[in-house]
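ok so i was messing around last nite and threw this chain in just to see what happens. nothing serious, just curious
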Amino acid sequence: MNDRDKTQTRTLHGKWDLLEHLVRGGIHADEDLAQDAAEAEKLQRKQEYEAFNRKLSELKFGKYAFFLNYGYVQNDNPSFAKFTPRESEFDVNSRRLVYEVIGDCPLDDLDVVDVSCGRGSVCMALHGRFHPNSYLGIDLSSEAVAFCREHHQIPNFQFEEGDAESLPLASESRDVVINIESSHNYPRIGAFFNECFRVLRPGGWLLYTDLLAPKAFARHTRLLQTIGFTKTRDADITSNVLSSCDETAERRMVAYKDPEERSYMADFLAAPGSETYRAMEQGLLCYRLFTFRKITQTSSPTNS
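result:
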């Protein structure tokens, strides 16, 4: 086994460890890690996602792997999305999820930062439908940032390597923060929420969604409200996400032939029958969508 294979194996095992943390209640559901431990865990996650992005880029269709979220299928739950993607569009369910997260937030002429932008799914969903004054995608993975810079060359759209817990942005410099299916990777979630509050202008929006255990979401909501955010939307969209997994996971799986890779990707994509899928079915994990606003100018972030 060569060094790259070893790295990939560590990545696969790391994903299973992450799932176990999520089912227990989210990474460090009661308190954030100390700084040294947080940095060590962050480095591990960075290495895992660097390896994952390299692996995707090596695949025949890797250059088309923009959307990595689980997706969204409309059902009886109320929808706030302003746009409905065409059925012919690539990764239509994943686009639907992005539009649902944005909801009725007015992005036109605003400055938007997409934290943990991955391979550019939000960028692709915004382009042509919304007209922000600026868009900045930030990701811890240099591989992901390089991919985005190569494949998403759009005026006023930029990408930068950066840490969600220490955003490379001036205070009160953005109107909207978008964070999709990523916060479970942050060892110091309080630091991330503080950073969101810091970089947002008064009246700014935090558009936030993730897959976590219920008690982790309860903690996150308390943290955000303590920092000074006001919650304006809270929706459990687990059923919408499970329906999307039913429709799309197996189609995505055809690119993975190696048994270990297939096992890993089945869970990464929440394919029916996978550990992640079953955890959502059983209520051990839920997928929630939130909108928070920075209403006042006087509130101050708390220390993590």
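not much to say yet. The longest strand covers residues 200-212.
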